[in-house]
Amino acid sequence: MTLEFLDPTHESGAAAFAPAKRLATLKGATLGIVSNGKKGTKPFFDAFERELKQRYGVAKVVRTTKSNYSAPAEAGIMTEAERWQALVSGIGD
Amino acid sequence: MVSIPRSTTKPGAGLRSKRHRADDFAAAQELFHSRGWTDGLPVVPPTPPLVSACLEWALMPPGQLVGIEPVRSRPITAEKLAVNAVMAGCLPMHFPLVVAAFTAMLQEPFLLHGATASTGGAAILIVVNGPVRAELGMSGSFNALGPSDRATSVIGRAIRLVLLNLLDARPGEIDRSTLGHPGKISYCVAEDEEGSPWLPLAEERGVPPGASAVTVLAAGAPRQLMNEWTTAPEEILDTYASEIRASMRHYSIWPGNYAVVVPPQLRAHFERASWSKADVREYLHRKARVRRSEWADCGKGSVVGERGEREYAAFGSPEDVLVIAAGGPAGGFGAVIPPWYGNKSRAVTMAIGACVDCEA
Amino acid sequence: MTSNFAGAAELMARALGAEGYRFVVIEHPISSASAEDLAGRARRAAAECAELLCAPASG
Fold first, then answer.
1. A3 — contact with chain B (CB < 8 Å)?
2. CA pair distance B289, B299, nearest whole angstrom
3. What part of C 20-59 touches A (C-beta under 8 Å)?
4. Do the Cβ atoms of B80 and A10 come closer than 8 Å?
5. Any idea where the domains of chain A sit in the sequence?
6. Domain spans of chain C?
7. What is the complex's ipTM, to 2 decimals?
């Protein structure tokens, strides 16, 4: 006896996503870091910031930390991010 | 025997989900399992008439938007909840609780994505209050935290299938749980209101007396305790507080909504001493505290640092304690159920049939 | 992302309509890694980030 049944999964397609335009260079840029603040992220991003400045000529690194590492970054951080040329988010672990 | 209400419209009318076919019941099982649509257990194939029957019982059109999961902007419709509820074994009369529980989980304080994706491996504890318990044959007695009756088993399971299928919370996909626990199969308990002198949990949390409601908590596994050697409420609660402190030292030191489950044999002592749930909550709020230095006793000395004397409380306030009356008639066995991770996810209580967007 | 979570990142990217979104993977875990280890991972991550953030050089 043939059974007909309904799909239990989410079926709508995801909205289109367009990546931001790439930078010509990191020299002189302002780059923001959105850290999830978990153990190990501070020393990692300290070293990461040094590299960006010393080796790649990034002019300014803005360090932010999410108030809840299990939730997306709060609106205030995303508003501030509009002033950056690039954003690095981490560390998913 | 349970009779399913006969539909007055053509079965399957208005349903939009893609339709699949299988030669028979066994083939349907293999199709579901091969696509990762199950929790590993057999499912009830969600045929259009069965799904429609759930929606009609709840008076919900298939396309009704129950809510949107905010991290992925994912819409949750009545139809999709009903499909997964049928798969779990829900009858139409169980479906309104599935809707209420998931609506509660979609409220911002619950932090649905974090609670269901984290390595912390929480399950969704659902506590049911009100007249709906008797209507559905729910039992808050024997085996209260295990499989105690059909309704609690299928409602809890329906929530897990919704997470799997609508939010991709499959192990190793969105669900990154290191261990998880058996509550992720089903974790639903009906409070024993009739056998208790205390206010129902939902009423304590603002639901009008006599209304049916669910409370959802992103929760770890139950930590069972025993104290049959005293009748003093303080000493009984010292055992609960001690179990909470152990969880704080061994798992997470952060405050949150711990649930404490109190069976009849222990409740009798509180009743004789005229202790209310408020008295229980006040006592636990005072006693469930640890010092940071205690981490050194359980292998975590490396993070004590200079702040060893700092005190951590399990509860931000007495209102954060969720006291649940449940359990079989004999045995001084209680349980502490820790939250997923401190206050990241908060317990949410919702009356059944409540409209979250309605004006007061 | 750390290596153990690369799969989760790919899934989230797909769920958000950004299938194939490139990201930097570093060794897992970080919570118990030494400062020296983390500095080494940061150096390599910075190099990969620079590549991902900038357009390829022309000519």
1. yes
2. 19
3. 21, 24, 26, 28-33, 35, 38-39, 41-43, 45-47, 49-50, 53-55
4. yes
5. 30-90
6. 3-53
7. 0.91
